[in-house]
Amino acid sequence: MRLQQARAARDASRQRTEDEENDAPAATSDFLTSFTAEESLAEFRELATSAGGIVVGEILQKRDKPDPATLVGKGKLEEIAGAVASSQADVVLFDHDLSPSQQRNIERELKVRVIDRTQLILDIFARHARTREGQLQVELAQLEYMLPRLAGRGVEMSQLGGGIGTRGPGETQLETDRRKIYRRIRHIKEQVEEVRRIRAQQRQRREAVPVATVALVGYTNAGKSTLFNALTKSDVLASSRMFATLDPTIRSVALPSKRKVLLSDTVGFIRNLPHTLVTSFRATLEEVQRAELVLHVVDAAAPAFIAAEQKAQVEKVLEELEALAKPRLEVRNKTDLLSELERKSLRDEDRVVHASALKGEGLDRLLAKIDAELTGDPVVTVKLKVPQSEGRMLAQLEAKARILSRSFRGGNVYMRVQAAESLLRGMRKFVQES
């Protein structure tokens, strides 16, 4: 019975949405963005679903400026209260950041829990964090979000005055909670620093061997994990749910030149990604900062203006990470969702590759582009004269170089190969002048 009421409420609110959307941007979204009200609402709906919620109603409002006390106007708040009562909703989500006082005022009127955009994203991150590192970073972001929201929940601030012994039993529950949270934040930051230290050591060991790192970035649900799996033959969780990937994953990939690179999968970005998350996940996102090449994965099936907005949001985060100037290839993924006519019109460009990670299309071209972009350990073509007795050397060439030609004379193997400079350094005595 309750589910039927919820569906009826959702249908009624959607009808109101259709009536208002032509002249009303999202009431909960006054961001400077090219997203329309419906697109913004559709993305927020995806966030709610990823958090495990069932959307039973959607309401938009047009305002010149937010109400400082409740964000939305008094009349609209009464309308929301009616919708909450009729649908028996458990929680109301706002596609906007709420100040602590706004959140308290709205909860007082609606008599249900109120969650803003940042808190919803934090909840999704908390659900999807699997490793200890990811859980620490999410908890840190949650605590920093919670601190300014402690006041006003039935506890009045009071102080007993200065002097020795006046700050112990007399402190309020609010002050005690604050002290506990500050202590926990310090402890988590110390643990995150330890994670960063260990990651730096691992990175130093990797960098001791000339293996380049390539980082995947992109808007959430652009298909990064599916592409990661297709390139590395891995089975990392690939889901249509937002933020399915939180914990960094690194795997090796063999390029056409037989060079090995490390591919790093990262958390998806989203418009107005809470700053606390960018800060908290900096240890994870350092892989992007250190990468020699960034692959920006874009949803090729998204409308052009949405794709452009998503691209701008990703670049905004890259700029915050000081990684915007890094060499970058754009991978327009999900071409399998385009019509046949659209697919025929696709043309790769100098820094753009079209691909379908799901169908395995365009991956060879992408790997060739990556190969050409990585100049840190360049591929060179040389002629070699290797004695057949050098079995270990010949095996290395077989495994790590492209052999263009080969012949056998007088106990020697004459070869023309393409290989990374680092591999050929130990074979200088076998190199023949052209």
Structure summarized in a few sentences:
This protein is α/β, with parallel strands linked by helices. It is 44% helix and 16% strand. The strands form three sheets. It has a six-stranded mixed sheet with strand order 4-5-3-6-7-8, sandwiched between helices. The protein has a four-stranded antiparallel sheet with strand order 10-11-9-12.
What distinguishing features does this structure have?
Rossmann fold; 4-stranded antiparallel β-sheet; 434 residues; 16% strand; 12 strands; disordered N terminus; elongated; 3 domains; alpha/beta; 6-stranded mixed β-sheet; 15 helices
Can you offer a commentary on this structure?
This protein is of the alpha/beta class and 434 residues long. The chain has three domains: 2-115, Rossmann fold (3-Layer(aba) Sandwich); 209-373, P-loop containing nucleotide triphosphate hydrolases (Rossmann fold); 379-432, no CATH class. 44% of the residues lie in helices and 16% in strands. It contains 15 helices and twelve strands. The chain has helices spanning 2-20, 37-50, 74-87, 100-110, 117-128, 132-146, 173-208, 224-232, 275-280, 282-290, 304-320, 340-344, 363-373, 391-400, 421-424, and strands at residues 91-93, 113-115, 213-218, 249-254, 260-265, 293-299, 328-333, 352-354, 379-387, 402-409, 412-420, 431-432. A six-stranded mixed sheet has the order 4-5-3-6-7-8, with helices on both faces. Helix 2 (37-50) packs parallel to helix 5 (117-128) and helix 6 (132-146) packs antiparallel against helix 7. The longest helix is centred in the middle third of the chain and has 36 residues, at 173-208. It is elongated.
